[in-house]
Amino acid sequence: MSAEAPTDGNAETIRTDRTGFLAAGALPAGLVEEGHVDILDMAAQCFMTRGFASTSIDDVARRLGSTKGRIYHFFASKADLFFAVAEVGMQFNYAAIDESLKSGAPAVERLTDMAFAHCLSMIETQPYQHSVWQGVEIHLRGSTTPEQRERLNALIVSRDHYSELFRRVMEEAAADGAIRYDDLGIARQLMFMTLNSPIFWYKPRPGETAEDRRKIARQCTDFVLAGLHAGSRT
Amino acid sequence: MSAEAPTDGNAETIRTDRTGFLAAGALPAGLVEEGHVDILDMAAQCFMTRGFASTSIDDVARRLGSTKGRIYHFFASKADLFFAVAEVGMQFNYAAIDESLKSGAPAVERLTDMAFAHCLSMIETQPYQHSVWQGVEIHLRGSTTPEQRERLNALIVSRDHYSELFRRVMEEAAADGAIRYDDLGIARQLMFMTLNSPIFWYKPRPGETAEDRRKIARQCTDFVLAGLHAGSRT
DNA sequence: AACTAGACATACTACCGAGTATGTTGTCAA
DNA sequence: TTGACAACATACTCGGTAGTATGTCTAGTT
Questions:
Q1: Fewest CB atoms within 10 A around its CB: which of A202, B2, B48, B100?
Q2: Across the interface, which of B190, B222, B229 has its CB nearest the CB of A194?
Q3: What is the pLDDT along chain A (234 residues), one digit of tens a residue?
Q4: By three-state DSSP, how is residue A25 classified?
Q5: Closest-CA distance of chain B to residue A122, Å
Q6: Å between CA of A34 and C1' of C26
């Protein structure tokens, strides 16, 4: 049933669409190894719906239509699998805002574009982002191994660095007088929470188009910019 | 150490402050039974820091300085304990917005007051609210019993009804032309996410005053109102 | 003074799930 | 053709945790 579409030869085609909803294959290059893709996709979905702690490896295997053996062949432990998912999630984000970040546009405009791209990334890679959230939020009970602790720290560092990219643009925009806030730290928290919120309430509708998703992201971005008291849209 | 302050006679004094940080005893009346208070407080903290699934009953007992026996004497199961915490959390919220809700003030003002009260409740009863969040969000793995399913549904209904209270005021305010948005459903999601966000990032500072907390709530409220394009503050 | 019941602590069971050890199958190389 | 290895599946171990059964102590009652 979940049967192999004939796995014909061309090993080149890493980013085939598979059965998965999300296709981690959409990433830049060989960032995700062949054979990992499906597992990551399904794991991300499990982690999203049941949470890390409540997700058993057998759950993921079941969703894959296979058994634990397959997963443990590629990932050393449940935590390893989780980190892999979360790290891919962050890759998505960096890739998403990259272009806007580098544009020479004025700060507010850059901030707007980044916020929009970030939000859209939340929507379109939701299960991965949900895992990132859990990783940063719940400090992962049972990260016994020091290697895992290290990996968790790396994830948080990555998250912080990403957040920093936004902070700089916010300060620029504030210096321009384009936005204003009371406390920068809180303002940034509120901004991210709003932009991240689709992680929790977004539910893909059947027959939904890419433009529909962009519309949601646009509304979130508008809300944030208004919240930052950006020039009232005439 | 965690020792009993002399449990002298007056059984009337249900709402003594105890060792707990939160004191569920601050609730309206006999809503929380004596003997439940400390357990609920500690359970809420555990659920917040480790999450429901990763929290063992022994964890809660350890934080109480006692053993499982005490907990199972009052609560039938781990899920029961969790629901009790979450339900108390919702009680806090209803109590918090009650006054503002009934005031005859114009819609925007009412909305502002409710938002502020709600946000402050998130801050001041954080562990309980974090449990509410988990209950509504993660659909509670292993709610095997139909009674538990029922209880979870009841919690969600309670949450929805609470959310409805806000929706009405939002529509009123929109009709007054005091706020405007694109999609009401999304606008409400964004509003709540922003107001709820302290659940995740608030961290009580030593020597913090009630006014400090109100200030945070005020900034969140401002952000939301601006996001809803309420009249630009002059 | 014995009786009772509430409020726990202690000791035990049963199960689930992470991790492992080993078996099986297909594919490619020589 | 055979050997080797990747990619899994199957079968098992073992620790942690929810839940239970039972013991103990104290306060209050008659």
A1: B2
A2: B190
A3: 333 333 332 322 223 334 344 455 455 556 788 889 999 999 999 999 999 999 999 999 999 999 999 999 999 999 999 999 999 999 999 999 999 999 999 999 999 999 999 999 999 999 999 999 999 887 666 667 888 889 999 999 999 999 999 999 999 999 999 999 999 999 999 999 999 999 999 999 999 999 999 999 999 999 999 999 876 443
A4: helix
A5: 14
A6: 18
Closest to B114 measured CA to CA, from B174, B168, B181: B168
| Statement: the CB of A50 is under 7 Å from strand C | no
Alpha carbon distance B27, B23 (integer Å): 9
Enclosing H/E stretch for A21: none
Looking at residue B181, the DSSP 8-state letter turns out to be: -
d(CA B50, CA B224): 30
CATH of the domain spanning A77-227, picked from 1.10.357.10, 3.40.190.150, 1.10.3720.10, 3.40.50.720: 1.10.357.10
State the alpha helices, DSSP H only, in B66-145.
68-74, 78-102, 107-124, 126-137
Chain A touched by B187 (CB under 8 Å): yes
The values of phi and psi at residue A28, to 5°, are -30, -65
Identity of the residue in A181, A190, A219 whose CB atom sits nearest the CB atom of B182: A219
Amino acid whose CA is nearest the C1' of C21: A69
pTM above 0.85, yes or no: yes
Q: How many residues does chain B have?
A: 234
Is the CB of B196 within 7 Å of strand C?
no
Cα–Cα distance between A9 and B209 in angstroms, integer? Answer: 67
Residue A69: CA atoms inside 13 Å, Cβ hemisphere, count? 3
| Integer Cα distance of A176 and B53 in angstroms | 47
Residues 6+ apart with CB under 8 A from B68: B57, B58, B61
